[in-house]
Each structure stands twice: as C-alpha cells, then as structure tokens.
Amino acid sequence: MKHRSNDWLVGAVIVATMIGIVAATLFLQEADLGEKRQGITARFRDVGNMQVGNAVVIRGVRAGRVKAIELADQGWVVAEMDLDEGIALPKDPVVLIQASTLFGEWQALITARDAAPSIRDVATQLADNAGAPPNALPGAVLPDIAQLTTYAGGIANNVASVAERVRTAFNDSAALELRASIRNFSVLSNDLARAVRVQSRNLDSIAIHVRAGAADLASTTEALRRTAGRADSATAMGEIGRIVAETERASANLRQATDRLNALSASLMSTEQSLKSVITKADGVLGKVDRGEGSLGLLVNDPSLYRNSDSLLVDLRVLIQDFKKDPKRYFALRVF
How many whole angstroms separate alpha carbon 262 and alpha carbon 254? Predict the structure, then answer.
C-alpha cells in the first residue's frame, strides 16, 4: 500500500509539472484560448528586429500580437497580425514598426497615414507599392535608438571636423587680417559718410533745379491751357470751319491744276512724237542731200556748179557796175 501511494504521488507531481509547463508555455506565447481574433496583413521592405509574438498597438493600447513573418515575392516581407475581437482600425491605416523599449523589444503600431511621422524615409516606404502583395496594409520601419545614435555620431564627427577647420582657419594671422579688415571697413565707412555728405549737397542743388523745372512746367501748362482756351473760342466762332472750307477749296484748285498739268503732259508727249517724226524725215532728207540725190543734193555736192555760180556772180557784179555807168545803153527812151 505504501508503494502504491508513492506511485500516485509521483504521477500527480509529473502531471502537475506537465500542466505547469504547458501553462507557462501558453503564457509566454500569450495564447488566448477560446478568444476570437481578426487577422490583418501588412507588407514591408524590411521588418528590422521585429519577431513573432511582438505586440500590436493601436493608439497606445495593446490590441493584438504578430502571428507570423514571411518573405514574399519581389523583395517584400509579409507580417500577419492577430487583433482582438471588435478592434476598429483607423482611417487609411498604415503599420509602423518601432522599438518599444531600450532593451531591444519591438512592436507594430497601427495608425492613420496622416498621423505618421514626417520623415522622408518613412514616407518613401509607405508610398512604395511596386509589386506589393494584395490586401496588405502599407508598412514602414521607424529609426531605432541604434540608428539615431549612429546618425548622431556622424553629425558629431561632422561638427568636430567643421570645428577643426574653423580652428585651423582662424589662427593668429587670420585674427590680424580680421583686425585689418575691420580697420579698412572703418575707413570705408568714413569715406562713405563723406561721400554721402557731398552727395546730399548735390541733391540739394538738384532739388532746386527740380523745383525750377517744376515751375517752368507749371508755366508751360498754363500757356498750353490758354492756347487750348483760344482754340476752343476759335472753334466756337467758326474760324476753324472757315479754315477747313478754305483748305477744301485750295485742295480743289490744286486738283484742277494737277489735271491741267496731266493734260499738258499728254500734249507734250504728242508733240514729242510729232517732233520725232519731223526729225526723222529731216534726217532722211539731209541724208539724201549728203549722198547727192536730187537737185539740192547735186547743188550741194557738185563743185562745178559752185564754180559756175561764182563766175555767174562775178559777171553779174560786172554787169551791175556797167549798168550803173551807162544805163542808156540798156534802155532806150523815146518821147513823142
């Protein structure tokens, strides 16, 4: 009987130990027996250090856990998450993976797209949808403490480099040059002040001339106003109308004179044609005379006729002289 009681005790201890192990396992895996869950899927290019079982948070409240993480096609990573029953997702939801503590624990934060941090890398990850799995929420990984420390270390190195360059640039010679530059700037300021004083006097003289010009402009405006008044009065008395009428009559006379000139030009053109015809005929006659054609041509071109005419004139001259000496020789007068 004693051995049987020990066997029962050992069996009870073993069963209790197994029940404790199973309960601890379910507790560590955060298993919810008998509770209904709703599943969602998110896609990422990289999930960082997130693992299965990490918490899913909505508006700062734990609303589920990460169920599975798998690689998908075209460089995507798909994370399946189980949410508690009745959880309502925000409008246009996105999933952000971030570090929840300083000890390497991560969580998935579900929030609205417009509530996501204004970080260029995060916005790029959320906007990337090339070949994304269907019906999967867009996701991105927020920078963790290690990344921020790395960025801060790089910034610190850059600041140290700039400080070193500044220290190298601003040595004793640079300080002397800076003092000389300040001294030169002081001299330049004095010169500028003197130039301003001189130019102010010039501006005074220019202002005087401008006022004189304004006065001249005012007098010119007054003269123009008087001229306009005179023109207005002349218009009222009909002088402008008479001038226009006289101008019209002068234009008519000029038009008549132009017509006469046109007629005269036409007459001169006909006269020119007649003169050309006469000159052509005279040229033909003179050509015939030059060639010895006709009586006039023979008279002009025959030298014997010239000589005979000359001797005839000589004889005629002798006859006239003889007639003057004794006219009775040639005329007989009888008186009854």
Answer: 12
Cα–Cα distance, 112 to 38 (Å, whole number): 19
Cα dihedral 37, 40, 46, 51 in deg (nearest 10)? 0
- Residues 81/42, Cβ–Cβ less than 8 Å: yes
Residue 109's nearest CA partner among 37, 50, 35, 36 is 50
Tally Cβ neighbours within 10 Å of residue 136: 19
CB atoms within 10 A of CB 305: 13
pLDDT in tens, 69-116: 999 988 899 999 999 888 888 999 999 998 887 777 889 999 999 988
* pLDDT one-digit tens code per residue, 12-54: 778 788 887 877 766 655 555 545 678 899 999 989 888 898 9
Residue type, 309: S
Q: What angle do CA 50, 56, 60 make, to 5 degrees?
A: 120
Task: Report pTM.
Answer: 0.39
User: Which SS3 state, helix, strand or coil, does residue 54 take?
Assistant: coil
What are the sequence ranges of the domains in the chain?
A: 1-31, 35-143, 295-328
Question: What is the distance between the alpha carbons of residues 66 and 76, in angstroms, rounded to a whole number?
Answer: 17
CA 305 to mean position of chain CA atoms: 101
Side-chain half-sphere exposure of 39, counting CA atoms within 13 A: 8
Single-letter amino acid, residue 84: D
